[in-house]
Amino acid sequence: MAGPGQLEAFYAFDDSQVAVETLTAEVNITAPSEVHTYLRAFAELSRITVHEAPARSLMAKAIDSALP
Predict the structure, then answer these.
(1) Which of 2, 5, 11, 40 is most buried per CB count within 10 Å?
(2) How far apart are the C-alpha atoms of 29 and 66, rounded to whole Å?
(3) What are the strands of the beta sheet with 9-12, ordered from one edge?
(4) In sequence order, which ranges of 9-68 are alpha helices (DSSP H)?
């Protein structure tokens, strides 16, 4: 669910449908050009995502910086 600090969340089911959750509604996208836009966004987010040890390291640094 999208929260106040997040404008939207989206879920790509396949290359023909994307569900977009806004603060107040869910929208199902089926127009090919719009689905393609979300799939490109997903690909870019996947490219910059970190996993496993690097992700744990980033989370530890964030926690350490938040503590007094």
Answers:
(1) 2
(2) 38
(3) 9-12, 18-21, 26-29
(4) 32-48, 52-66
